[in-house]
Design brief:
The structure is a homodimer of 153-residue chains.
Chain A: H1 4-14, H2 21-31, E1 38-39, H3 40-50, H4 56-68, E2 72-76, E3 82-86, E4 99-103, E5 109-112, H5 117-128, E6 131-142, H6 144-152
Parallel strand pairs in A: 4-6
Antiparallel strand pairs in A: 1-3, 2-3, 4-5
Helix pairs in contact in A: 1-2, 2-3, 2-4, 3-4
The structure holds a DNA duplex (25 and 25 nucleotides).
Binding site for Fe cation (chains A, B): 97, 135
Cofactor (chains A, B): Mn(2+); Fe(2+); Zn(2+)
GO molecular function, one term (chains A, B): transcription cis-regulatory region binding
DNA sequence: GTCAATGCAAAATCTTTGCATTTTT
DNA sequence: AAAAATGCAAAGATTTTGCATTGAC
């Protein structure tokens, strides 16, 4: 499988866009942290360690580009920040974003893969004629540790 | 059942807060449009028709208050705007937010009630020990009309 | 060399805050 | 009369944009 970086470079060339250090650095920053959910500012800080001259505007522009190319997903975990993460979909396959479990105790965000939503999607299709293409699920609650902590008290 | 407005007034009094025209007007604006998903600015414009002197800051402050009291839900439908809607939960009952179906064709947002997620929640509980308290589901796709339109072409 | 991308600073959005004044209780 | 809420304008925060310069092809 070609890694995301190669895929990105390919897509750029296909579109007549240029493969710049900044663009590659930004994708790399995200790629190295697959389960982090980074804000634009955080990405900026990370890339700055390697390339101190990069501008925040470039980060925003590249993020937008990556989202359009479906290489990253835009997230809203309810804390008021817009976050991004590397997409985990297999190329042509229907983009099935994973689900997020947000712990109300420690604030950690876990991810969860599962296609149990297919049943739900089918029901929606039948009853409402709505054709589902993609979905996003957030569950709020308490992670194992925090749940245990709460029971003790 | 006491309507939302009375409930709001009660809660305000319980907390030693004051029942002002502005607060009631804002709740009313939301209550009269149960399935709209309004932005702060839109709420401001609506209330301004009745009470032209209201300030945007008051709208923001009241929205925050209503959200804290669980009378309204904060939504993020992926269009970059923060939106609000009247909650539909029955008092003490577990808050079960309804799901949103977002049409990629016409942009309309439909709502969908269903507890098919219970299965998913149970599975998460078993496999990961994560205790789910609340959830939020967004489905992206094409509504009946837009799906038909797309098949024709 | 050409055209796109970058960095910077300024502008545009959206939301919050401080404070004098008004309103509720 | 006391305390809280309001409106306004200013300040914050986040994201976008214009433009001269730089870099990829």
């Amino acid at each position: 499988m070609p890694d995301k970086k190669d895929r990105f470079k390919m897509l750029l060339k296909e579109k007549g866009l240029k493969v710049t250090t900044q663009r590659v650095d930004i994708l790399e920053a995200l790629e190295l942290r697959p389960d982090k959910h980074l804000t634009a500012e955080e990405i900026y800080e990370i890339v700055r360690e390697k390339n101190p001259d990069i501008g925040l505007a470039t980060v925003y522009r590249t993020i937008q580009l990556l989202a359009e190319l479906n290489l990253i997903d835009k997230l809203n975990l309810g804390d008021g920040f817009v976050r991004y993460e590397i997409g985990n979909m297999d190329e042509e396959k229907k983009a099935h974003h994973h689900h997020h479990l947000i712990c109300l105790g420690c604030g950690n965000v876990l991810t969860f893969q599962g296609d149990l939503l297919d049943t739900l999607e089918n029901q929606i299709q039948k009853t409402m004629g709505f054709e589902v293409v993609d979905h996003e699920v957030k569950m709020y609650g308490y992670c194992k540790d925090c749940a245990a902590e709460r029971k003790k008290e």
